[in-house]
Amino acid sequence: MRIQVRRTGGFAGIERHAEVDTSGRPDAHEWQALAEKALAAGRGVRPIGVPDGFSYEITVDGKTVYAADPRLTEEQRKLISRVLKEGA
Amino acid sequence: MTTNGGFEPVFCTVVPPHVLDKLARNDDPALSGPAQRTLMRDSELRGRRRVTTEFGLAAAPTAKAPSEQPLRTIYDAEHKTDLPGTKVRAEGTDPGQDATVNRAYSGLGATFELYLKAYQRHSIDGDGLPLDATVHFDENYNNAFWNGEQMVFGDGDGEIFLDFTIPIDVIGHELTHGVTQHTANLTYYGQPGALNESMSDVFGSLIKQYTLGQTAAEADWLIGAGLLAPSVSGKALRSMKEPGSAYDDDVLGKDPQPATMDDYVRTGRDNGGVHINSGIPNHAFFLAATALGGYAWEKAGQIWYDVLTGGELSDRAFFTDFAKLTAAAAKARFGEGGEELQAVEKAWEQVGVQIL
What we know:
The complex is a heterodimer of chains A (88) and B (356).
Chain A lengths: L1 E8 L6 E6 L6 H13 L13 E7 L2 E6 L5 H13 L2
Antiparallel strand pairs in A: 1-2, 1-3, 3-4
Chain B lengths: L16 H8 L4 H16 L4 H7 L16 E5 L9 E5 L8 H21 L11 E5 L8 E3 L4 E3 L14 H15 L7 H23 L9 E2 L14 E2 L8 E2 L3 E2 L14 H9 L1 H14 L7 H10 L9 H16 L4 H12 L6
Parallel strand pairs in B: 1-3, 3-5
Antiparallel strand pairs in B: 1-2, 4-5, 6-7, 8-9
């Protein structure tokens, strides 16, 4: 499973992007479960969000959903921060 | 939460406007009061002018004058994401051990002060709105935002960004999003979104200048000075004086802001480049303010404030719409033959925004 996260907006307006390929990882199952929940709670169109709030694109195996601060589910927040931290 | 969240309907919003209009004129205050307040709430999206002139609300004897003092409350999210978090400092209490809490408290006070002293505006909504802020939001959170009701600050990750309460202009920037929400309510996308961002940078910078007692010539015109970690190559996040020059770093990349319409950036990201193209109206303000000299909040700031709150600015305004209104406001407040009108017209011309 290929999980990509793109974060745009924010006070600084600086974009960040990272991805994680779960194949061959010992914790692949955990990533997949998290990604599926994050995806299920995502939106099909980019929400406008709040002024200076971060806006996110989460892409899992080619399927993209959108989310924005401060309205993220627990799973979305966890997935986003893990991918941006551990991903390349 | 949408950008215009935080409005509690005073009267059920399914009441048709013509009915509200009739109720608002009723002799019985029990009927006219709530209807007038509902109309006022609605009209805040476009400005207060119509309601105040038609119903004389500004002079209504029943209206209690809002306080000359802010009503601040600081909350601590304790590195979680639930808002508002635990209350840690109330209005009028002494500073505590947490410098972040103290900075947020002071910054809210400085913002309240500029709006009241320079523009006779009572808080964010013009009606004494309590000022709430949450600090220590999430872990290593590299952002600050206005959620429609309150401010939220992250601590930064310490590698790229430091604590978001450090620059006072960042605090002023976020609160000004609240002022915009309660006045012109500029749509947070594309050119109106870039104007929304620019309003926050303009008044954020003015709050810093007012606090430091700086003239336009003395000000640094930077947004977010002191926010970047020492290892980052940059002086701030944005420069109103020289958009595009704030940072140039291996990790952050280069400041993408244009100064003129020739370099306007078309993009779908960042809500259509709201933090990018704001460089153009930001630079126009800088040019007008420095041409006029003295304290920037007195003339250029007053003109910009008149447009933001005057009721004529559409929530879908483009740069040219805004620019035309600043010329009209300069004329209305300072006269047709004044240096103010000339400075404003020249500033827009220099950044390539047509006003004629």
